[in-house]
Design a protein that fits this description.
disordered C terminus; mainly alpha; transmembrane helix; 0% strand; 580 residues; transcription; TPR-like_helical_dom_sf; Helix-turn-helix domain-containing protein; single chain
Length: 580
């Protein structure tokens, strides 16, 4: 077990030592006379196949660009270095951020959309899916009327995000559309081979995620043949891994083992440790299914060692920890059993922190209360061990206690949001029948008499008439609306308007505006099924908010729940009505 961990740590350290660095980089003599096109072609040939060579070519492109002051080479150099580092689980963000800054005001067929694409891709590698989506949407808007290839490529990237959050049914049509687009280009002799083969891999992987393993195998086979036909092996190893996953679920166990063993060398060479961890996990599962327990345990241990070295955990590998806990329990090895209970808790906490799998139903054999019970039993049995072990147990118990508090607080908060969403929906239904919003109901009451005001009667009634018109025409959904702009639109004094809102509405301008917007979007979501399918960012924009964060905060403050809970409840009610 320790041997496995030591081997993997040595591999990681070695790769860190030999990694190319932009700082102080010198172009090798063999590349000094290569043109930009030759270097780009060389990079494309080894991309995803040999990360060390890919980074060497990328650094050379950047260096040549700076020496010749060629902006296109500089941009491509930053883009390629960022991408290679992201694939190697290194920090590519400084290069992506530099590219964003440099191309901010540069308009071409590729930029600045391409800079947004690489930034979103790196955020995806970091499991920051919401942030990644924002950059992909920006890239799609920038590319829409300028670069059709980029526009469809971003569709594929959004499909990958949906796959990562288990929205597999929604992702599949995006991959099919992208595949058809790239295939048509190849058939018309104007396509990009790498993009075309990549579209086949995305489709094969999506069919696998949708549990259509025969279809996945079919497209893996197509992809392998196309790699050989066009002499482009960028995705070759990934097709073999995908084929292995399909073989496992189709119970072709020996074929699956052959697949997984054959990709190990390439993943190590490319420092693709995440996919290496996945292949080790499936080797463990396959050996388990063929009654080769010791080999299975060995590969589950390798998966754990890699995951901890990277501090990255995937839900697909989670039950490997459950298998290790069961194994050491059967072997009556309490120390190792306790160790992997702790590892499982830690893996869960990292995944929860990354917000990757919130509201997704992931099967868990060991739920938190059961693990806590087992944990306490083990601690009691090991209480008389040496002092170092006792300190270890105390620390681990505190960790479990903290995680338990976080777990139950989160669950309590979720229940509160769900309960508040139900109450909110009932109120909205009542308001909807009356065709009044909450704010409009308050205004109707206020119309009966004038409150005490420092404004003259003339100013008061003039502003009141204009405010009523402003609310009825939904002027509040205008983005970036300020008190000064509204005063200008209403042709009134800014201070008079502020006083009117403070005195008549009992709140400041920001509170007043946010309540109008939230009440408006509550009814819109209730009555407009299509709007519910939008992203939170898009819904925020519809309501007049400049970003999703300010919208969610205002929604939570005013309603006591979150937009996602309210929308989910609306969808559930809609489904029930449909089935009825």
């Amino acid at each position: 077990m320790w041997k496995n961990q030591l081997t993997i740590l040595l591999i990681l350290c070695y790769n860190l030592i030999i990694c190319q660095s932009v700082v102080g980089f010198k172009i090798p003599d063999s590349l000094k006379n290569r043109s930009g096109k030759e270097l780009n072609d060389a990079y494309d040939k080894v991309f995803r196949i040999d990360n060390v060579k890919s980074e060497l070519y990328a650094n050379t492109i950047l260096r040549k660009g700076k020496m010749s002051k060629n902006s296109n080479l500089i941009y491509d150099g930053y883009y390629k270095i960022a991408h290679v580092k992201g694939l190697a689980s290194e920090n590519g963000h400084p290069f992506a951020d530099s590219l964003l800054q440099m191309t901010r005001n540069f308009i071409s067929n590729e930029y600045p959309a391409k800079a947004h694409i690489i930034k979103g891709t790196l955020l995806y590698y970091d499991f920051k899916y919401s942030d990644a989506l924002d950059y992909f949407i920006s890239a799609q808007k920038l590319a829409k009327d300028k670069n059709k290839d980029q526009y469809f490529y971003v569709k594929k990237l959004i499909g990958i995000l949906k796959t990562a959050t288990a929205e597999n049914e929604e992702a599949l049509p995006l991959f099919i559309e992208y595949y058809q687009y790239e295939k048509n280009k190849i058939e018309n002799n104007n396509g990009d081979i790498k993009n075309y083969i990549g579209s086949i891999f995305s489709l094969s992987n999506s069919y696998s995620k949708n549990e259509k393993y025969n279809k996945s195998k079919f497209y893996s086979s197509v992809g392998l043949k196309e790699c050989q036909k066009y002499n482009d092996y960028t995705y070759y190893t990934y097709f073999i891994l995908s084929d292995g996953v399909s073989n496992f679920y189709l119970k072709n166990y020996e074929a699956a083992i052959k697949n997984f063993l054959s990709v190990e060398k390439e993943f190590l060479k490319n420092k693709d440790y995440e996919n290496l961890a996945v292949s080790y996990y499936f080797l463990g599962k396959t050996y388990d299914q063929t009654q080769r327990e010791q080999e299975a345990i060995n590969y589950f241990l390798k998966t754990d060692s890699l995951s901890f070295a990277l501090n990255k955990f995937l839900p697909v590998t989670r039950d490997g920890y459950e298998r290790l806990i069961d194994y050491y329990k059967k072997e009556d090895n309490k120390v190792e059993q306790l160790k992997y209970i702790n590892h499982l808790f830690y893996a869960d906490s990292v995944m929860a922190k990354n917000n990757k799998y919130i509201a997704k139903d992931i099967y868990r054999k060991y739920d938190t209360p059961l693990l806590l019970q087992d944990k306490e039993l083990l601690i009691n049995k090991l209480a008389n061990k040496n002092n170092s072990l006792q300190w270890f147990l105390i620390f681990s118990s505190l960790l479990v206690l903290v995680l338990t508090v976080i777990y139950f607080r989160a669950r309590k908060r979720l229940r509160r949001y769900q309960k508040q969403a139900i109450i909110l929906l009932d109120n909205v239904e009542i308001e909807n029948r009356n065709k009044l919003s909450i704010v409009e109901s308050e205004n109707r009451l206020n119309n009966n008499q004038k409150k005490k005001s420092t404004l003259s009667d003339e100013n008061y009634h003039e502003i009141k008439t204009k405010i009523i018109n402003f609310e009825s025409t939904k002027g509040f959904i205008q983005n970036n609306l300020t008190l000064g702009e509204l005063a200008k639109d209403l042709d009134t004094n800014r201070d008079y308007l502020s006083k009117f809102i403070n005195e008549e509405k009992g709140k400041n301008f920001s509170q007043y505006l946010n309540e109008l917007r939230i009440n408006y979007i509550l009814l819109e979501l209730k009555n407009n099924k299509k709007l519910r399918k939008y992203t939170i960012s898009a819904i925020a924009s519809e309501a007049g908010f400049s970003n999703s964060e300010s919208f969610s905060n205002a929604f939570k403050r005013i309603t006591g729940t979150l937009p996602s809970f309210y929308i989910k409840l609306l969808e559930k009610g809609s489904d029930t009505t449909t089935h009825d």
